[in-house]
Each structure stands twice: as C-alpha cells, then as structure tokens.
Amino acid sequence: MGNPGSRPGLAPRTRPGFACCYLLALLALASACYIQNCPIGGKRSALDMDVRKCLPCGPGSKGRCFGPSICCGEELGCYVGTAETLRCQEESYLPSPCQSGQKPCGSGGRCAASGICCSSDGCGLDPACDQEPIFS
After folding, report:
1. What is the C-alpha to C-alpha distance for residues 66 and 54, in angstroms, rounded to an integer?
2. What is the distance between the alpha carbons of residues 12 and 100, in angstroms, rounded to a whole number?
3. Which domain holds residue 125?
4. Is residue 3 domain-resident?
5. Cα(33)–Cα(68) distance, rounded to whole angstroms?
6. Where are the beta strands (DSSP E) in 30-90?
7. Cα–Cα distance between 126 and 73 in angstroms, integer?
8. Is 29 domain-assigned?
9. How many other CB atoms are found less than 10 A from the CB of residue 12?
C-alpha cells in the first residue's frame, strides 16, 4: 500500500489561488503611475530618467491624461469621469511614469487648463494656473 494519507497516482499541484495572487502582486508592482501619486522610493525614483508625457485623450486627442478618469486640454477644459477619459485608464498598464501639465500647483497637482489645477485624484480652481492675457 503506500504511506498513510497519500493517494497513489496524484502528483502534487500548486494551488491556483497562490498563482493568481502572485500574478496580481507582480502586476501591481509593474504598473505605471502618474507622477503625482507615485510612492516614494517606488516609481518616483524613476524621476532621474526622462518622464514621458501622459497619453493624449479627449476630442481630437487635444487633451492629456491627468489621472485614470481625468482628461484636460487648454482648448478643451477638463473632462472628469466621462467617455472622453476612457483612454486614460490605459495609463495604468504602461510601465513608465508620465506627467501632464507644465506648472506645479495645489497639493501635488499641475496646471491643466486656464485656472484649473489637477492631480490624479481630481481638479479644482487655482489662480496660480490663470494665464496671463495675450494682449495687454
């Protein structure tokens, strides 16, 4: 017979739940982040490299992603949680961090459009983002 408690003919198997958890953990470590919400010591340390622009979005791709559901452009203003922002969800699957906007504003945000400051969490009015009049 065999050892008590063993079943002949069955090879040891790995648990499918363990493999699934391992893959999810690996995906979480490898996923991209917006510069504003990168953890310190994580992808934020990649700031020594060139940071790419976030994906284009919105009508005519005239905006840039500022978060997973935020698309802003100077000509467009900002879209939050609309169909125009669906492309921004792809950013989570890209391996390198990105940054949109030129000027820092608010609490970890960047100027997204005239008078609007956005971070990956949301947008708000900010006078630091007001543009100077072109004709004065």
Report:
1. 7
2. 50
3. 52-129
4. no
5. 9
6. 52-53, 56-57, 63-67, 70-73, 77-80
7. 16
8. no
9. 4
52: β partners: 98
Task: Quickly list H helices, the chain.
Answer: 16-30
In the block, residue with structure tokens 């997973």? 68
Q: What is the pTM of this model?
A: 0.60
User: In 10 A of CB 63, how many CB atoms?
Assistant: 29
Number of domains in the chain: 1
CATH number for the domain that contains residue 81: 2.60.9.10
Cα–Cα dist 52/133, whole Å: 29
Cβ neighbours of residue 72 closer than 8 Å, sequence gap 6 or more: 58, 63, 64, 66, 78, 79, 100, 101, 112, 113, 116, 118, 123
Q: How far apart are CA 67 and CA 82, in angstroms?
A: 12
pLDDT digits (tens, 9 = 90+) for 15-65: 555 454 444 444 444 445 555 555 544 544 544 567 899 999 999 999 999
Q: Is residue 24 included in any domain, yes or no?
A: no
